[in-house]
Amino acid sequence: MSEHPFPEPSPQFPEHSPQFPEPVEGPEASTSSANLPQFPEPSPQFPEPVEGPAIKVTGLTKTFGTFAAVDGIDFEVPRGQIFGFLGPNGSGKTTTIRMLTGTLRPKSGLAEVLGTDVVRHPERVQRRIGYMSQKFSLFEDMTVDENLKFYAGVYDLPAEKFAQQRDYVLRMADLVGREDELTRNLSVGWRQRLALGAATIHEPELLFLDEPTSGVDPVARRQFWDLLYELAGRGVTLFVTTHYMDEAAHCNQLAFIYRGRIIAEGSPTELRTKYMDQRIFDITVSSADLALDYLVSTEGVDEAYLSGASLHAATAAHSPLSADDLRQRLIGAGFADAVVLEVEPTIEDVFVNLVSRQR
Fold this sequence. Notes:
The chain has a six-stranded mixed sheet with strand order 6-7-8-3-9-10, sandwiched between helices. A four-stranded antiparallel sheet has the order 2-1-4-5. A four-stranded antiparallel sheet has the order 12-13-11-14, with helices on both faces. The protein folds into two domains: 55-272, P-loop containing nucleotide triphosphate hydrolases (Rossmann fold); 277-358, 2-Layer Sandwich (Alpha-Beta Plaits). It is globular. Helix 3 (144-154) packs parallel to helix 5 (188-199). By secondary structure, the chain is an alpha/beta fold. Helices cover 29% and strands 24% of the residues. It has helices at residues 93-100, 122-126, 144-154, 159-172, 188-199, 218-233, 268-274, 288-296, 323-332, 347-358, and strands at 55-64, 67-77, 82-86, 108-113, 116-117, 129-132, 206-210, 237-242, 253-258, 261-266, 278-284, 303-307, 310-316, 339-343.
């Protein structure tokens, strides 16, 4: 796979439809918010969107040989929302995005993006969408400004429009004054912001973000989500894939994909109430690894796993086991400093529960 999603830039802006990078997924793949400044609104580039969902998928399937990377999935993405597509690595997230951006033909099924059949007419869709991959799709041997000029050329932005959008992107990404800096010299967080700016230089109606926070530190991740909120507030529909379950709370709607199939969908609140049939205990203990080994073999505990800096233990909803019971068991097993609290399930807890049912 080429390192960059587009051909090498020439001095003049190229005149061709945008092409998106083709990340591999399938058997061949290894498997406190800061206040944002207010910026002037760029003028709309596209006509008023038609009614209906931003994305509508029915029976979408993609196979690689006998392996079903995406197995007959159905879902809709409402316009103007942040839609989270969650799942572990290798679950089919990137393959789905490639089909929705028109760079990979499905084996079967229908995919409508912004009211257009993207399988039959990908070129009608690609100028109205943006794409940001986990590799950030930037030219590291080019400056910040050169990257923005190149992407503006890909989308044939007029000079006046580019000047307007360039000013907005530099302010949004907090890169004013760093226009002539080589991209390779930027930190991961700055490159992430620049990639977001490049993906939105043409004011897309719909933005696909494929694992955009992978490898980014927690502070940069939080700042990045502030930028996504701003975009959503401007009317952009965001389709975000991630395997960070804590990011799900930032989304309006969610769909969980596992082994190529949608196993749950709804709002974060709906997922916690509709799909969760377990009680969750949060356990803080100094010897977390040893305590985890103990918990997985403890009677009455259905699941035990790391959750941030603590452990979570799941029991059946009707289990008589209490937090004090579990604490006394841990103390009796040698974990004298264990602190046990029953807590509300997180999105991660819901996902672990759902995957356990699938297995």
